[in-house]
Structures are given as structure tokens and as C-alpha cells.
Write a structure and sequence with these properties.
With 227 residues, the chain is mainly alpha-helical. The chain has one domain (2-217): CDP-alcohol phosphotransferase transmembrane (TM) domain (Four Helix Bundle (Hemerythrin (Met), subunit A), Up-down Bundle), CATH 1.20.120. The protein has eight helices and four strands. The chain has helices at residues 2-6, 16-27, 36-56, 62-87, 93-116, 123-147, 159-173, 188-218; strands at residues 8-10, 149-151, 178-181, 184-187. It has a two-stranded parallel ribbon with strand order 1-2. A hairpin with a 2-residue loop joins strand 3 (178-181) and strand 4 (184-187).
Length: 227
């Protein structure tokens, strides 16, 4: 597991420079008794509550607004836990990597499960989106272990940008929950979910192709000896 200590973090999203400065500012001002485990637990609880909020949106639009709040709380906990550990020199590479990303996967189940029960997104689209997301997570983790680079964003979009897009989508749903395409009406989140799943699958294909080629060139088959 020594490779995890040496993994380089690659975070090239649009908001990464601004986000990094904000997280360092927050980490320097957190009370001493708050540690990374508290923030990770907060992130997981926030995702659970975001899923519950979407479920509540089935009977009240207030659920959509609550989901926006909990997405913000999730950003605070999920983005700040690693920064706090680095600022305080309390890094635990293997433990942090494992726990943080198990929480990410479980949180995605909570969130998309809630979306699938919200009435704003069909369960099948939510399941498709979840599968695509989890497959992309698996690829990212395998690439981290084999190539030594932890890729945190793709095509300038990272977790923070995805939260913002989802939060903005919630506000749009309050006014326009449906979309009309070629004279037919669909749920707006179904259309958005299918587009997002397609983008994740495309990202997965590009990453797998690139990383497979890199590893193949690094470990080529031995040349055949001529008798």
C-alpha cells in the first residue's frame, strides 16, 4: 500500500484554484476539537439527508430546497476533511483514502436513491446514473493504485461543479419540472440524468483507453525469441 502515499493529486476543475484557497482559509479557522473524521461523518450524514430531502420533495417543493442545503453541507465535510488533515500534518494516507471513498460511494447511493423516489427522476434513470458513477469511481481508484495519480476531475468538472449543477437544477425544477423535446414531454431530471450518465460513460471509456495504453507500454509483452 506504499503507492498511495506517493499518489499525485490531479485536480484541474474550473473552480479548483478558488476552492483550494477557500478550504485552506476554513481549515485554518476550525476549532481544534474538530478533526477529519468528524468532517467525513458530516459529509455522509449530509448525503443521507439530501436523499431524504429528495424523497420529501415528492410531497413538498421544500424538499428541493433542503437538498440544496445538504449538498452544501456535504461539500463542506467532504472537501475539507483532507485539507484539514494536510494543514495540521495529520495525514493518514491509506485510512483516509479508503474511508473517504467508501463514504463517497455510499453517499451516492443515498443521493440517487432519494432522487429515484422523488418523482422528479425515474428509478431506472437514477439506477443508470448510479451504475455509471460507481464504474467511474472504480476506474479512478484502480488508476490511482497502478499509475500513482489520483484524478479528481475530468474535462474541467469535479465533484464541486457537479454539486453546483445539481443544486441549480433543483431551483429550476421549482419552475420547470418538465422538458419538451420534439413535441414530447419528459421529466427534466430524466433528460439531465441520461445526459450525465452518457457523459460519465464517455469519460470512463476515454480514461480506460488512456490508462490501459499507458500501462501496456510500461509493461510490454516480452519479445519472442527466434529459435
Amino acid at each position: 500500500m506504499a503507492g498511495l502515499r506517493e499518489a499525485r493529486r490531479s485536480h484541474t476543475s474550473v473552480l479548483a484554484p478558488l476552492e483550494t484557497r477557500a478550504l485552506l482559509w476554513l481549515a485554518a479557522r476550525l476549532p481544534w476539537w474538530v478533526n477529519s473524521d468528524h468532517l467525513t461523518a458530516l459529509a455522509l450524514a449530509a448525503m443521507l439527508m439530501a436523499g431524504v430531502s429528495y424523497w420529501l420533495a415528492r410531497v413538498s417543493d421544500a424538499g428541493l430546497l433542503l437538498a440544496v442545503v445538504f449538498l452544501g453541507v456535504n461539500w463542506f465535510g467532504d472537501s475539507l476533511d483532507g485539507t484539514l488533515a494536510r494543514v495540521r500534518q495529520h495525514q493518514r494516507p491509506q485510512y483516509g483514502f479508503y474511508v473517504d471513498h467508501v463514504v463517497d460511494a455510499v453517499g451516492a447511493v443515498f443521493l440517487l436513491g432519494g432522487l429515484g423516489m422523488s418523482g422528479y427522476m425515474s428509478p431506472m434513470v437514477a439506477l443508470t446514473l448510479l451504475i455509471a458513477y460507481l464504474l467511474l469511481l472504480v476506474e479512478t481508484f484502480l488508476a490511482t493504485c497502478t499509475l500513482g495519480t489520483f484524478t479528481m476531475s475530468h474535462f474541467k468538472i469535479g465533484p464541486t461543479e457537479l454539486r453546483i449543477l445539481l443544486a441549480l437544477g433543483n431551483l429550476v425544477l421549482l419552475v420547470h419540472p418538465m422538458a419538451e423535446i420534439s413535441g414530447r414531454t419528459y421529466r427534466l431530471l430524466d433528460v439531465s440524468g441520461i445526459i450525465a450518465a452518457g457523459g460519465m460513460v464517455l469519460t470512463l471509456v476515454v480514461a480506460v483507453t488512456k490508462h490501459t495504453r499507458t500501462l501496456y507500454l510500461a509493461e510490454p509483452l516480452p519479445s519472442r525469441k527466434i529459435a
